[in-house]
Amino acid sequence: MKEELVKEGIQKEEKVGYLKSKVNLMQGTLYLTPNRLVLDAHKTGVSGLGLLGSLLKKQVEKKSFGFNLEFKDIQKISQGKHGVTKNVLEVTDQQNETYRIIVKNYEEWENELNQKL
Q1: What is the pLDDT of residue 2?
Q2: Looking at the domain that runs over 2-116, which CATH code has it been given?
């Protein structure tokens, strides 16, 4: 996945928290390219349990969550909140699916994306 984005040209990349639901936070990476916004997020696996634990961890982390949206597929960008955190980037696609991502600086992402939309 990342190799494809590197070829396209990554303009911004940041380690983020993906709020899959109110109680499910996944670690991931948010990428901005000239053509799209991509979130690659993974469940963090179970640690411990020796060899079995490491095999389970690999299986859990293999499945990728997130999105791969071309700019034409993005309906709107807005600022959300999660507890006291106000740096929540909310991206709504044309199907009215909203993705909530905790970023370091909401304004930076908003500015970059508004230039593309």
Answers
A1: 87
A2: 2.30.29.30
Name the average pLDDT for the chain: 87
Q: Do residues 45 and 58 lie in contact, with contact meaning Cβ atoms separated by under 8 Å?
A: yes
Nearest to 107 by CA among 82, 86, 92: 86
Query: Which pLDDT score is estimated for 72?
Result: 97
Q: How far is CA 116 from CA 15, 27, 42, 51, in A?
A: 21, 25, 27, 46
How many angstroms separate the Cα of 15 from the Cα of each of 31, 39, 50, 53, 68? Answer: 9, 10, 28, 25, 16
Q: Dihedral sign, CA of 4, 9, 14, 18?
A: negative
